Amino acid sequence: MALVFRRWASSVPSKAHLHKPLPDKSFPAGYKLTGIHAGVKKKKDVLDLAVVLSTSPYPTSAAACFTRNAFKAAPVIVSDDVLTRNAGRARALIVNSGCANAITGKQGLEDAWAMVKHTTALLPQNKNARETGTEHDALVMSTGVIGQNLPIANIIAGIRRASDSLGSDFAAWERAAQAFLTTDTFPKLRSRVFTINGVEYRLAGMDKGAGMIHPDMGPASISFSPRQLHATLLGCIMTDAAITPRSLQTALTYAVDRSFNSISVDGDMSTNDTIIVLANGAAAPSSDGRVHEIDEETDRDAYEVFKKELTEFAADLAQLVVRDGEGATKFVAVNVKGAPNYKDAHAIASKISTSALVKTALYGEDAKYAFLINPALTIAKLWGRILAATGSVPLSPSSSTTSLAAATPAVDPTKVSVTFIPSDGTTALPVLVNGEPEKVDEDRAKNILGLEDIEIVVDLGMGGEGEATYWTCDFSYEYVRINGDYRS
């Protein structure tokens, strides 16, 4: 009985090692930002309002991917509208935590527009940065409790105070990152330096999310049919490269598909999920007071470099969300390959990653208790659940034939293989090869089950080049406790 109690009371591993200082020189030029307490959250020492301003003398391109949830929150609707009005230009971002401003009717929209207007007023006047004046030069994001109105007077007062603490060093970036947080255990902030045609540029970004995470985001101003509901992931990425609005949007859409749209904590999509990118050209070579913006049609090679850097950076940020998943004790990469196409591989990886049976098995087989169980049998239970999830996903019809029956491929169980790959660099553990179970080494199984990071490879053996990776975590008792008590 004492052992059972210890399992219920088992602690979640510390995530402190994932939060680290970054050198000031790694942040992009031409941005000032801060995080303050504005009174959205009750505790006065908790930051709850972030402001990001582009101070570049050049036009700032903006792109976004928004939730496809049918119940889009007011900030999602308003930010989409701003991007449409400004043809992909915006110079500021305002973010609050503690209240999602979702399902709040007309008042919610008015409050989101007020946040946009008052944040725009903080921007420096610059003829080159905005060739036509507008009171709507900011985007807005909110996260927290759904169905409650914002304390908008507090937020407006906070926006006006924000200019007192704006900065561009690590401390300023970290304040902004902290103001995003709800049930997160650490601020998620990263930066990187990259080069295009001999010119050095920088990317920096922050995101938040620990629960209600299974994003399905698409580009701005596009209609999508409703999908299953999923909760809040917010993120913003800033760069001092110069890129046209349309190319920034296509690069972000590609990157989000392979990063934020490929993570899951609990299989639930938010009303507020938003990823925003700003590109202000502050580090780009200039002449006659203007910069040349990279475009996917006229500068294909430069665009591909930028897209690759953005995708890798977005994946780094997205993985931090999974690592900080509510109650998570394991970080799991699910790689599906040998599928007919990327879409099918991605759908199967998603199904495995959201299976409650898979996720609870990942938590339940803690190596601390392996002396009570047969590791070979427990890992067999796990991969059995993985296969059950795999076989439940219908594959997309092929366009190579007109016969519907012949055009829809199916997984052949006799060709499927499953392998567990440990993160410590030791030997991989095949558990199923071409549909035949392998004899499992119990010591290897015990070691792998005890690791914090695990990769699961499912090879469908269909001969296709489709391959996709999804990042997920386990379900623990702590996840239930957090969500039973959650009030932001």
Automatic annotation (TrEMBL):
Heterodimer of an alpha and a beta chain. CDD domains: OAT (cd02152). Catalyzes two activities which are involved in the cyclic version of arginine biosynthesis: the synthesis of acetylglutamate from glutamate and acetyl-CoA, and of ornithine by transacetylation between acetylornithine and glutamate. GO terms for biological process: L-arginine biosynthetic process; ornithine biosynthetic process. Gene3D superfamilies: arginine biosynthesis bifunctional protein suprefamily, ArgJ beta chain, C-terminal domain, L-amino peptidase D-ALA esterase/amidase. PANTHER family: ARGININE BIOSYNTHESIS BIFUNCTIONAL PROTEIN ARGJ, ARGININE BIOSYNTHESIS BIFUNCTIONAL PROTEIN ARGJ, MITOCHONDRIAL. The active site is at residue 232. Substrate binds at residues 182, 208, 232, 326, 483, 488. The alpha and beta chains are autoproteolytically processed from a single precursor protein within the mitochondrion. Belongs to the ArgJ family. The lineage of its organism: Eukaryota, Fungi, Dikarya, Basidiomycota, Agaricomycotina. The keyword Membrane does not apply. Its EC number is 2.3.1.35, 2.3.1.1. The record marks 231-232 as: Cleavage. InterPro entries: Arg_biosynth_ArgJ (IPR002813), ArgJ-like_dom_sf (IPR016117), ArgJ_beta_C (IPR042195). It is found in: Mitochondrion matrix. GO terms for molecular function: L-glutamate N-acetyltransferase activity; L-glutamate N-acetyltransferase activity, acting on acetyl-L-ornithine as donor. It catalyses: L-glutamate + acetyl-CoA = N-acetyl-L-glutamate + CoA + H(+); N(2)-acetyl-L-ornithine + L-glutamate = N-acetyl-L-glutamate + L-ornithine. GO terms for cellular component: mitochondrial matrix. Pathway: Amino-acid biosynthesis; L-arginine biosynthesis; N(2)-acetyl-L-ornithine from L-glutamate: step 1/4; Amino-acid biosynthesis; L-arginine biosynthesis; L-ornithine and N-acetyl-L-glutamate from L-glutamate and N(2)-acetyl-L-ornithine (cyclic): step 1/1. This is Arginine biosynthesis bifunctional protein ArgJ, mitochondrial. The record marks 143-144 as: Involved in the stabilization of negative charge on the oxyanion by the formation of the oxyanion hole.
